[in-house]
Amino acid sequence: MEAVGDLERERHLRKASKNLPASLRNVVEYRKSGLSLNHVVGCPLDCGYCVRHMFDNFEMKRPHLVMDDEQAVSALIAHWAFVPHVTPVQIFNRATDPFLPLVKQHMLHTLELLDGHGFGNHVLVITRWKVTPEDAERLERLRHLKVTVLVTWSGIADPRLEPVDSVIAERSLEVLCKHADRTKRILYWRPIIAGVNDTDECIARASALSRFADATVFTGLFHREQIRAHFRSAGVEDLYHDVPRRKILPREVEQHILRRYFGAPIFRKTSCGIAYAHGEADYNGHYGIREICDICPPDQIRICAAGHRRPSPDRLSSLVQMVGLDLGRIEIAEGKVIVEDSTEQQRYFIQHSLGFQVHDRTQPHLPERHGRAEEGWN
After folding, report:
1. What are phi and psi of 37, to 5 degrees?
2. What does each C-alpha distance from 301 to 68, 157, 226, 275, 304 come to in angstroms?
3. Cα–Cα distance between 327 and 119 in angstroms, integer?
4. Residues 179 and 68 occupy one common structural domain
5. Is the whole model's pTM more than 0.85, yes or no?
6. pLDDT (tens digit per residue) in 353-365
7. Is 258 in a helix, a strand, or coil?
8. Does the N-terminal peptide bond of residue 191 adopt cis geometry, omega within 30 degrees of 0?
9. What whole-number distance in Å separates Cα of residue 300 and Cα of residue 337?
10. What residue numbers bound the domain in which 330 lies?
């Protein structure tokens, strides 16, 4: 990784250009796992399936600073959707890797600033790069935030799909296991691609690695048009036929993994694994979709059941009005709230505020599919 070596020789991140695309100038965005803070953009790791393809950012190989950490924290706290101790937060998960050289100093400083406010929010830090004992020890000094490091590991050997050696993630997971306790760690097994890294050998390796983790979360591939185009340009035949909104993980692949996997508790949803690691109910309220829970440990199911409460009409009305949805088109159904003409940001804010699933009527979560794309489930 020549570009990473260049970073290690520099002393400071460069400031981002003023003509940065609007999608990158906006440093706070609501995503499924919470408010996403991204005031550093650019990454040299070149993972072919990266979401940076969707943000006009994949060709920016050198990380740049959009604003300083203090400004970014102020923007996050002032965001209309930020609720102290409630709203999950992600840091540098859209446009860079938080543990890259120089980038991690901003990530750690940002966490320290948030922790200094006394916030007890969940914070997700997703990486596939090198975590050192010093990094882990600095994270351990945080007193209030509930930090989870999700170490992305795929076992993919094809450099056209992923040029980063999975051994790097394996070592990071071992470091966190040895040097972190309060900071939780997840083996983030992704993206699983049919015929690529769903072999018995990959499953056995993931099972063995999970002994260093508090939990394992497995998930499929975002196969958007930009990602497919990138793979085609690299000489990769189409991995799937469809380019859907949701991740692709075919039924047969999931069933094969669940039959063969033998490691730490494994979860279909990121927030489920985080909830288990921290001994809490799932902040996304997946307990409302009971087939998601059929692989969860019984003790965790009991915790989520105890924390699962049907929202009162008054509380729901207040949240619906806050995000500007039509009150007359809201339904409290079994295990979920159904809304109409909503954006993801509106739904996720209500969902995290209630700890209860919120679905749009035009984008239903079909039974047994666990919120995944149709390909491989029809």
Report:
1. -105, 120
2. 41, 36, 38, 11, 5
3. 31
4. yes
5. yes
6. 999 999 999 988 8
7. helix
8. yes
9. 23
10. 313-360
